[in-house]
Design brief:
The protein has 16 helices and 20 strands. Bound molecules: ligand BES and zinc ion (2 copies).
């Protein structure tokens, strides 16, 4: 699919369909007034009678009956112009995109300038459209014998505008990159555990590295043993699938400094291990690599947009299985940084895998850390399924992550992290730390455990157990994987400012 930019009036444009924004206003102005004249004032009438609905997120398709060269017009309701937000605009475009997808045409046009309002210029509109279109039309290619390939592939979207062609194209390409990176993350999460093993995830990361010229390192089991990654290795102990520590580096600055480390939980299937999950709780645990997917999706966006930043992505990957070799409750293990851990619950495996990954990210020069993980059921109880739980040891860095999440339209909510929390993860009689200090505030305990490995490095923890998937379809996402935090992570990197600068 390609974008082409056209500097003419949409009223005169020949097209299968043109997408037009309509605000809840008493009169039309600009090109819409011209369009209304061509329709002999009928559009005003359509609005009055509800055939065109200007309420936010309503779409109305009208044939042109030869009054304009375009065959049909798709009106997108935007509500009151002063109230429209960037996120709502994306959602409205999402609704329109689904209608367009069902129309099965190879091309259509978008009258960008009809969507412009006080706080949202044409470039924002181009970005919002491209991002929303890719997100809303995403579909996982399933394994049914009858394929769900679209019969008419979309070839060209014409963006019609009076604004600067180059800038409009650049904005659309940024939006499209954000959408596609998120979709790639969704696909990784939707893949079943037998199709996406740690080895496959590593192969996928290598393909990204090849495409975007990232430096890559994939550690195998022997190398992990040599480096003393006892925490990740313990999680892998019961598996027949070899573990992988996946590292990708992108250098956008002359020197390897101010490095942002993105660390994503890559558990390809979580049975719980000997602290086995109940049969209802185990279904869906193919999504336990949602953090890894978000990191790889963000790396794809970074590879496309090539910001002047330095990033190291680190993904500890394995499944968490049961067997005669598997690790057990009461085991004591030693992590890469030397800290010993008493295992009280083998289902609290994510924090173990992440512990070594955080240490390894620091080894690779990470001076700022963001970890992303489908870490706890507790965060779902606390915040529901539309807010990612966050923790931090550094206010200024947290502010940067919070701002990025606002800009991306992904909600995060901070959980407290106090000295008492630190004491609870250090409360083992057998070892330096224990991996499961009990049910009370256990989302906080998981974060606090990871904090023991971040130590003094500015760090933000993101628990996406609730947000990585959605049970019901949304305007910008079908049911299934959401790609949560992909866009936020990419924005954290794009907008990153070192505390030294
Ligand atoms: N992968 C799970 C968390 C999870 C739950 C993700 C639901 C997505 C949906 C994690 O490894 C886990 O099992 N956490 C336990 C921790 C507990 C044993 C301390 C939990 O949250 O119950
Ligand atoms: Zn678990
Ligand atoms: Zn898990």
């Amino acid at each position: 699919m390609k974008f082409s930019i056209h500097n003419d009036s949409f009223v005169e444009k020949e097209q299968e369909c043109i997408v037009v924004g309509v605000f809840n206003k008493p009169t039309f102005d600009g090109d819409l007034a011209v369009l209304d004249q061509k329709f002999d004032g009928q559009l005003t009438q359509f609005i009055k009678e509800g055939d065109i609905n200007s309420k936010l997120k309503n779409v109305s398709k009208i044939p042109s009956f030869g009054k304009v060269p375009a065959k049909r017009l798709l009106f997108v309701g935007l509500g009151k112009d002063k109230e429209l937000t960037f996120d709502q605009l994306k959602e409205a475009f999402g609704v329109a995109a689904k209608t367009l997808k069902h129309m099965k045409r190879s091309t259509f046009g978008v009258a960008l300038d009809t969507f412009v309002t006080e706080g949202i210029d044409t470039f924002d509109v181009a970005h919002a459209f491209a991002e929303a279109f890719s997100l809303a039309t995403y579909e996982f290619q399933n394994y049914k014998q009858k394929s769900n390939e679209p019969e008419v592939p979309l070839e060209m979207i014409e963006l019609i505008t009076g604004a600067d062609e180059q800038e409009v194209r650049a904005s659309a390409e940024v939006g499209y990159a954000y959408g596609r990176g998120t979709n790639s993350a969704r696909t990784l999460v939707n893949l079943p555990g037998n199709m996406l093993t740690a080895t496959k995830l590593a192969e996928y990361a290598l393909e990204l590295a090849n495409k975007y010229d990232f430096e890559a390192e994939i550690l195998d089991k022997e190398e992990m043993e040599r480096l003393g990654m006892g925490a990740l290795l313990a999680v892998n102990q019961g598996s027949v699938e070899p573990p992988k520590m996946i590292v990708l580096k992108y250098q956008g600055k002359d020197e390897w400094k101010d490095v942002v480390g993105l660390v994503g939980k890559g558990i390809t299937f979580d049975t719980g291990g000997y602290s086995l999950k109940p049969k209802d709780g185990i279904v869906g645990m193919k999504t336990d690599m949602g953090g890894a997917a978000a990191v790889l999706g963000a790396m794809e966006i970074i590879g496309e947009l090539r910001p002047e930043q330095n990033v190291v992505a680190v993904i500890p990957s394995t499944d968490n299985m049961v067997s005669g070799n598997a690790f057990k409750p009461d085991d004591v293990i030693t992590s890469m940084n030397g800290k010993t851990i008493e295992v009280l619950n083998t289902d609290a495996e994510g924090r173990l895998a992440l512990a070594d990954a955080i240490t390894y990210a620091k080894h690779h020069g990470a001076e700022y850390l963001v970890d992303v993980a489908t870490l706890t059921g507790g965060v779902i109880v606390a915040l529901g399924t539309d807010k990612t739980g966050a923790m931090t040891n550094n206010e200024a860095f947290f502010e940067q992550v919070l701002e990025a999440s606002f800009e991306a339209g992904e909600y995060i909510w901070r959980l407290p992290y106090t000295e008492k929390d630190k004491q609870r993860v250090r409360s083992s009689k057998m070892a330096d730390l224990n991996n499961s200090p009990g049910r009370e505030g256990h989302a906080i305990m998981a974060g606090a455990f990871i904090g023991e490995f971040a130590e003094n490095t500015p760090w933000v923890h993101l628990d996406i157990a609730g947000t990585a998937t959605t049970k019901k379809e949304e305007d910008l996402c079908p049911a299934g994987a959401t790609g949560a935090m992909t866009r936020t992570l990419a924005l954290v990197v794009e907008r990153f400012q070192s505390s030294e600068s």
